[in-house]
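Co-fold these.
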Amino acid sequence: MEILLAILLGAGFGFVLERAQASDPDKIIGMLTLRDLHLMKAIFFAIGLSSLLLFAGIGIGFISISHLSIKAMYPGVLLGGALLGLGWALAGFCPGTGIVAAGRGRKDAWIFLLGGLVGAWIFTLQYSFLEKIGLFNPWWGGKTTLVDTGAKGATALLEGKGSLLLALALGAVMLVIAKLLPLRPGQK
Amino acid sequence: MKEWTWFQAGLALAASFLLAVVLVKPIGVSTQFVILDGMMASTIDASLVVVDDSTSSGYASSNAYLNKSGGKYAANIAKPLNYGLVFVVAMFGGGLLSRMLRKEKSPRQIPEVHEARYGNKAWPRYVAAFVGGQIVLWGARLAGGCTSGHMMSGMMQTAVSGYLFAAAAFVVALPTAFLVYKKKGGA
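Predicted complex below.
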């Protein structure tokens, strides 16, 4: 059953990324050079809407909090995020969109995935050292969220009734940002 | 073919993320690069991943990363037919499906922005893609997730790590993209 879900959800997500043009490096670089904010608007809208519905769903008991999974905060998140940003801007792919673009038939995406496998393996071999120098030491308790999600092992910065309101407000703010961002800045 | 508007794309992406978390768990991709690497490495070195009843996953590895969290990755390498890897392989299938349903079967091979600045030879683009891929996956593993896991799934759940990951990624990605791909002689 879980494998069937993996196939359906994975194929659906891959299809959606391709149709959203997120696997087109020209669209990614267009966004990062602030010429074409199609993807940035779509991403803000998607995160805002899914967050709103997620917390509403948890609130009415429709979504099981056992499905949530919060990633820890540690210095490597900042360094790793910065490096991902560097490679993302250079190649125009991130891991997920690289896979989708390879399925779409792009040769440069296959090369990106090959580089990715090499990078991931180098990291795997260096892990002990990176851990030793403290890059994985948790910050602020590690698995921390702004809003009380109830997820296993996670702590919230804001608990209680105001928490759900903050979640809904954050989602709404992202929807507003998505709407307000200009599609093509600098063009009338 | 008419492309989706940002609104349609946003709706479809939101549905993907929400469905995944309602039915199974938040979407994540970059871990599977390690799993695939481990599968290849363990065909060369059979002692990399071994059965070990004393760990919570039932598997152990001589590599500290594959051995962490009770040998979780080691177990996925030994038994790759699991949700995470199948999901990512299916994403490839989704890209393929979209291609088959498009009129334009062969996509552009070298990005316009690359060609405008560096010409239409293939190898400089391949170098950028290969080096970029290495940096992206090394960084994603250090951060513990990529655009899908940290930025989308993380911020959806209001994870502090998700917001800070996204901020770090964009702070570096914007100036890099300007430096590497800004057209000569002005914006």
